[in-house]
Structure of Aminotransferase:
Amino acid sequence: MAYFDAASTEPLHPAAKAAFLSTLDEGWGDPARGYHDGRRARMLLDAARETVASVLGTRPDEVSFTTSGTQAVQLGILGVLAGRRRVGAHLVLGAVEHSSVLHTADSHAARSEQRGATAEITRTGVDRTGRLDVSAFASALRSDTALACVQSANHEVGTVQPIAEVAAACRAAGVPLLVDAAQSVGRLPVPDGWSVLTASAHKWGGPAGVGLLVVRKGTRYVSALPYDEREARRVPGFENVPAIVAAAVALGAASTESAEEDARLSGLIDRIRARVRETVPDVEVVGDPIDRLPHIVTFSCLYVDGEALLAELDRAGFAVSSGSSCTSSTLTPSHVLEAMGVLSQGNIRVSLPRGTPEAEVDRFLALLPGLVARLRAVVAQPAAAPAAVAAEEGAVVDALGRRCPIPVIELAKRILDVEEGAAVTVLSDDEASALDIPAWCEMTGHEFVRAEPRERGSAYVVRRRS
Amino acid sequence: MAYFDAASTEPLHPAAKAAFLSTLDEGWGDPARGYHDGRRARMLLDAARETVASVLGTRPDEVSFTTSGTQAVQLGILGVLAGRRRVGAHLVLGAVEHSSVLHTADSHAARSEQRGATAEITRTGVDRTGRLDVSAFASALRSDTALACVQSANHEVGTVQPIAEVAAACRAAGVPLLVDAAQSVGRLPVPDGWSVLTASAHKWGGPAGVGLLVVRKGTRYVSALPYDEREARRVPGFENVPAIVAAAVALGAASTESAEEDARLSGLIDRIRARVRETVPDVEVVGDPIDRLPHIVTFSCLYVDGEALLAELDRAGFAVSSGSSCTSSTLTPSHVLEAMGVLSQGNIRVSLPRGTPEAEVDRFLALLPGLVARLRAVVAQPAAAPAAVAAEEGAVVDALGRRCPIPVIELAKRILDVEEGAAVTVLSDDEASALDIPAWCEMTGHEFVRAEPRERGSAYVVRRRS
């Protein structure tokens, strides 16, 4: 199996595994106890905290270990919101943050409403590479803004965010900044200027069950959970010392190895970006090509069912993920691709774990074009029902009840039947169409005229321009 | 090192360790993904859930894995409170619950107050063995009671709680019951009748980082944390599959081995209970001698500094814990011993992990009497200042500024100087005196007349009765 989904979880670093095993034997005691086994666990925990602090350039007493990156995000956001309740309840986020950040913001808004208060959430936009619009972000900061949250780099498309500029804007506005560094810790240094930093060990080669919540001295913070003495009263529950030690060892190893290995992975990603464009027709490779994480690339293949693409790649021995709506239980495409305004159909994210053999990448690149072509051949059948609805806007494609990628495929076929300058209207009730039809126009040079809601779904009007 | 602190954390079961190692290799993938490595992790997670459900006699879809027993307690209590908000905010607890339960109740009360609502908490008492007063508990249930919480067995003294009777009272009152089964799961079956059950894997020989939150179908439950798709939306964050698999294997092993091994451990605990009473003067062995956990016993040694006792035992190679105030950072004695009204000074909890060799217990029993005698000899020096304050109540012992066990030691010396029927008054500002002076009277047969607050500390009046 060629595992290309490191952005979901990176396999355990060998040094971390060795540390894990020895700490299961030596560090299982309760670090709150004063006897020999407890003191030994405490020493191991303290040493792990110092390792992490040293890699991040913080003080050890600013570092708390959580039980996941998600918990770190939830506690970090809710803790600063509680600490700054008197300032206000306004929260500013980037539009392409991780779902854990978005859900915590939603929860904050819902709870404020329950209390009869209002908690406005401002989500500021990104450009077509997924990079935050810093001036929009800076303008969103207000005197009642309790917290601003930005990821260090995007988890789906790899684009690195302008943290230094965002931090400067936050400092000027007197607003604390939480940086969700889940995708970059152990790979890239985090620029200074944050008040809270969160991360997740299994993304850098540590084990599952460990996250980081780093709260800078001077940040007003009130724990959102019931009182507990563990982890400086920030994270309740018995400390998982063996996993924490393994996480720290993996972080130390990753950060010493990262320069060389990340350069190698980045070269492989460059190769994927270039070769996919050359060998797969109708593909959109997204994300910033230069200022990006070393190990992630995302591209979308027109006229392909994402679910089928994942399944075929799995059969061929490749593990990748997708932001296509066809592969998600929610039927909506990735909010990241949506905010960027890029195609979501037939989407594939490749994220290379450390040590990925070059030959595996080449095997993937050799396989992909034929696989995409076969899937397109299977799916590109005529729509079952001919256009049955009259419309002023030229030919009508009735794709009601049909799922991505069918509406776009039918549009692509029908547009060839009309004169240049004439319109085709697609009726679709698949949520992905709202994103994918404009993105298809952008890619193919046709004009996207408008979308208008209908009793069932929407009508998408497109004018032929070539 | 003879490790006698299994109630804090039980060493990893050998079968669990083997399962942990193999699942680190095979179950590290993201169980939410559809490719091979993800499906394998999902299958391992599902199998672990079925094992746990089968041991507990529940449905697999009622079982969620948390990241600690503390998290299970917090989510369980807050989730039912949120689900039954319309019924009321009243919460009923036993007085000797684990601190995680008490702190969650405090947090509920504080938050309700912040919202301008009131959330009354009723803590009902226990007898001198630590057993819940069922009729007091039943009378505390009201029409606005959102939840009742009771432990299956006490973590400090081992007494098993009358869960079946409590459950019947809750059923009659239409109040859901949360059972904190952290100390008993894997050792004793949990009686039926609960709505929510919580537990902690590292107490039954599983690894740190795994707790159980079991919510019966039909229980109104609203997650207290922001939305996340993991663990049936009950527990946010990436599932720690290797640790969960190890926890399930340990539970399966513990429950098949428990009958024989627990009978053996229970015999060793009986031996400790009997021999400590025979060989250590002025000792109080507490907790129910019969209806108790198989592996826990607690006793308190008069006139001994608990901190020094722990340190001496550690030097001699024994790891035990203590509920004495002298060993805690809070300067207050264990709330469990306090609610029971028993002595807290010189307190030791012995909790035997599975496989404890009989010879280690015998070595402990051989060592203890001499060690206690030596500590008493060291500490039993005359008070620095003679009684300097006049009082109507006979002789005065001025122990202001002196810490446990000194006030009781001075009282024990001074009482011999007065006639039978005459009084001695102890002035003390050590919080432990409020518990330990009445407990000393109970043990020695002298009469505890009263305690009254003074400008500094309190005056405790005792009448000589032998």
Confidence is low (pLDDT under 50) at residues 382-391 of chain B. The first strand of chain B starts at residue 2 and ends at 3.
